[in-house]
Design brief:
The chain is of the alpha+beta class. Helices cover 33% and strands 22% of the residues.
Length: 166
């Protein structure tokens, strides 16, 4: 992922008003290792149920505001819809995003299961288990590349679903 500034992040959020985007608490960006991410996600420390994700679509950043469906239900065993990691299943939460445009202003939302701490990029890059790839190094590399491509495709599809109503 290309490095982003706070201004770029705020401007990229497509399913929040300008005021909501400006009130979001953006984390410190100086220490972010952008090359390690397929998307950048964080929790708003001032609004515990609010989270944000920014990813690149067609070379430009597109951000979405997410809301945890129920703070008391986070961390249940489930499969993340974005990384589909079969090993890390104990920290997945339901997130809901308001649709863009008039549909979102009417209260329409879309939900999905995502790793609670937004660690999908690390999950897809983990070393495959023996059951997944055996000892074949080329198979291991291919599996990791396929996981990365799948994460990018599924996260992009979710954001495009939000944008489709703009």
């Amino acid at each position: 992922m290309n490095p982003l500034t706070e201004k770029q992040i705020r401007a990229s959020i497509v399913n929040a008003s300008r005021g909501e985007a400006n009130r979001a608490t953006v984390p410190e960006l100086d220490e972010v290792r952008w090359a390690d991410f397929d998307y950048f996600g964080w929790h708003d420390r001032k609004a515990p149920l609010d989270s944000y994700v920014v990813l690149e679509i067609d070379g430009r950043p597109v951000g979405i505001r997410l809301r945890a469906a129920d703070a008391g239900r986070t961390g249940r065993k489930a499969l993340c819809a974005w990384c589909e990691d079969i090993v890390v299943t104990d920290d997945v939460s339901l997130y809901v995003a308001r649709r863009g445009g008039a549909s979102g202003r009417r209260g329409n939302t879309v939900g999905t299961l995502i790793c609670t701490q937004f660690v999908c990029s690390a999950n897809v890059r983990r070393n495959p288990t023996y059951a997944e790839a055996g000892n074949d190094e080329s198979m291991r590399e291919h599996l990791v590349e396929s996981r990365i491509a799948g994460l990018r495709e599924r996260s992009t599809r979710f954001v495009q679903e939000i944008l489709s109503t703009r």
